[in-house]
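Revision sheet: structure tokens.
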Amino acid sequence: MRKSIPWVLLIGLTGCGGSDTPAPVADAPATIPAVAAPVEAPTASNAAVANSARRISPQEAVKLARELVQKKNLSGAVQLLNQAIASNPRLVEAYITRASIYADQQLYPRAVLDFNQIIALQPDNARHFNTRGYFLLVQQKFDDAMADFNQAIALDPNYAQPLNNRGLARIAREDFTKAIHEFNAALRIDAKYIDAMNNRGFAFTQSGKTDEAIADFTQVIQLNGKYVNAWNNRGQAYAKAQKHPEAIADFTKAIELDPATMEYYRLRADSYTALGQPDLARADLDQIEWSYELDALNRNLNADPKDPLNWVARGQHLAKVARWDEALTNFEDALKLQPDSIPAQLGKALVLWKQGQVDKALAICDQIGQTEPHRDVCSLRGDIYFAQGKLDLAIADFRRAQRFDAVVAKAYATRAEQRKSSGEIQQASADLQEAVRIDASLKTADFSETIDEPAAQAPGAFPAETAPAALPAPQAVTEAPEAAPPVAPEPATADPATPAQPE
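Predicted:
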């Protein structure tokens, strides 16, 4: 098991602790250094925000900035905070709010600069040192982070979070024994501090003490059954102890709680492989590949949201894993941009069929077919008819679509059985021969009566007298583009919890 700690997994996460309301300004220095964060020029969309800031107090500007954060208008919020700080450089809440925005954007150097100002204003606040230490920690500035955590503990010896964070810094240096001591100290202050408990379990795992690790993770899960890191970490501890059925159960729970984290699928695939279950392992690895492709489709959509084919491609990709509601939304969004888009209409028909709305799906296919013959329409409609048991209609559509695959072969074989049961031996034999020409793996039926063999034909070829009318080249449904998976950071072998950030 790898011991490297990729700090990218810590960035942007929060622990269980909450932020604290800033204390009143006390013993502040006479002068405050200039704010280092740049002031953004107002954009057209934020011009009204900038103008309103000139007419309100700095405190009101902070309140308005927090409202803008809730509305995801971060640039407008930063502009307000910049102006509030320019008007009142001693306004701690403005620095804290701006630092929180920078942290959410992973602009940690800027967040540190703001906390330099905050600490200059409130040098006796342990929580400020702990928070700045966290921002230094995620930048791997371990010595500076440790200095801040030490100062936080000196200011408030009963403050558990800096002890936990100091343990994380020791984990980063692979000093697991000292890390365990730090987490022990945090847990003596707060016996139910599950971040510290989870992190101690991680340190135990890295030290080879899997029994102690499993005990810690189990206690975390008992305290909070939705703490996904504990499920993942316990699964890894079980896997390290060669208890793969238990590991699979824990990774499955982690996936249930956080299906977007691909590392859980990879870990479960490893355990399936260890148990000699390659098909299940392959399914998990396929899910990872599917997710990488979805990321590529999302990037295409973000780059050009007005291209209906981008919506169609993502809808088709979602349909591959039966995420029907999401797929339908994408197809309908494509139709808003291009109402006559045949790929979008076909995608919508497919989803409606899978959701049991067969009549609506067939109506869409029929409507498209009225304007022009279309192989993809015939193919989909053939599938629907086949599922309904309407074999004559299904096979007729498959022939129009010039489609020859296992599904079509099965349709012929099924109709052959029906015709045989009805005594239509000659027609049954013809159907069976066509099925075998399409799919040679099908076994020849034992007919009680035989007929002369027809002239040899290429697999899937139609007899001349029954061949469908020529069709124009199909307007194929757009497939999701092939995309190589992006280079991902080396995944963690476990997820240490993260110190709390200011809200």
